[in-house]
Amino acid sequence: MTIYYVNGSYQSRSKALISVEDRGFNFSDGVYEVIGFSKQKLLNFKKHTVRLKRSLNNLNISHPFKNFKSLELIISNLINLNSTENGFIYLQITRGSAKRNHLFPKNVSPNVVIFTFSNKDLKNLIKGVSVGISQDLRWLRCDIKSISLLPNLLEKQKASDKGFYEIWQSRNNQITEGSTSNAFIINTKNVIFTHPANNLILGGVTRDCVINIAKRNGFLVKEKSFTINDIQKCKEAFLTSTTVGVLPVIKIDKCIINKGKPGNITLKIMELYNKYLIKQIK
Ligand code: PDD
Fold first, then answer.
1. Atom of ligand 1 nearest to the CA of 201
2. Can you say whether the dihedral through the CA atoms of 214, 280, 142, 239 is positive or negative?
3. What is the pLDDT of residues 213-244, one digit of tens each?
4. Whether the Cβ atoms of residue 165 and residue 131 lie closer than 8 Å to each other
5. Is 215 among the catalytic positions?
6. Domains along the sequence of the chain with CATH
7. Which of 8, 53, 139, 202 is the most buried (most CB within 10 A)?
8. From CA 282, how far away is CA 280, in angstroms rounded?
9. Euclidean distance between CA atoms 28 and 32, whole angstroms
10. pTM, whole model, 2 decimals?
11. Burial of 108 by CB count in 10 Å (0-12 exposed, 13-18 middle, 19+ buried)?
12. 204 C-alpha to center of ligand 1: Å?
């Protein structure tokens, strides 16, 4: 039986309930994190908590946990109760429950929901995925990990209907990021490009780790946006997210990348990132 954490207690699915007046439900007034775990150990936990704190502060939602050590304990208990070795945590915090009113209610406690989930098999995806290109329809605070994901959903669905795995969004002719991942290309001089971590993208935890790992291993990384024209000339491409790690991109719109095969630099970065995760569970 799957166990869910809801506002201080661990419940079965039928008892894991949230008010119909939850502001996340009514207004998407909340934030979330997706955190990986392996051998029951949380991966990149510190970086996720730094981003969570930032998202909460930006939306003026009060912090529901005494500190992040207590959050870690709550999550560890949940993983234990679910007897899951490897997987992901979905953590959602909304402003709380109150009569529907656009203005922030006074004296509400945030609603917290946490559950575990597992990912589909990555075996086929690591051979390389295709991505489409669409207009970035989102707001100008994509750096907040808000639960309001409608533009991401719409674009991802449209892409999926056309047979693409992911969609890379373009604003003013610059690729910002994917609908659920960060976007990277590598040019013919082996320079890795990705959009800077500003208000136009979600500063991905995987993105951040990959940039640091790549730099430490002698690769040149430029946090500079790239265009569709740059894509047409690029040598390799990949995307990053907590749920898939590093995935080679072998087709972007109609453009075949590296003859439809994962590139050598991408493969090296995948290997280095996996080693980096394994180190955290030893
Ligand atoms: N999505 N950009 C967007 C818009 C995302 O939704 C995500 C992750 C990322 C990558 O961030 P990270 O490396 O921290 O996972 C970038 C999660 C996994 C999701 O919504 O399920």
1. 2
2. positive
3. 999 999 999 999 999 999 999 999 999 999 99
4. yes
5. no
6. 3-117 (3.30.470.10), 125-281 (3.20.10.10)
7. 202
8. 6
9. 11
10. 0.98
11. middle
12. 6
CA–CA separation, 159 and 253 (whole Å) = 10
Which residue is associated with the tokens 């990021």?
177
**Cα(99)–Cα(22) distance, rounded to whole angstroms?**
9
Q: What is the mean pLDDT of residues 6-24?
A: 97
For 123, the token pair is 């075996």
Mutate to test the pocket of ligand 1, among 28, 33, 34 (most ligand atoms within 8 A of CB): 34
Banded pLDDT at 120 (limits 50, 70, 90): confident
Name the nearest CA neighbour of 39 among 84, 88, 5.
Answer: 84
Residue 277 sits at φ, ψ, to 5 deg, of -70, -45
User: Is the per-residue pLDDT at 56 higher than 90?
Assistant: yes
Structure tokens at 111: 């609603």
What is the tens place of the pLDDT at every residue in 249-266?
999 999 999 999 999 999
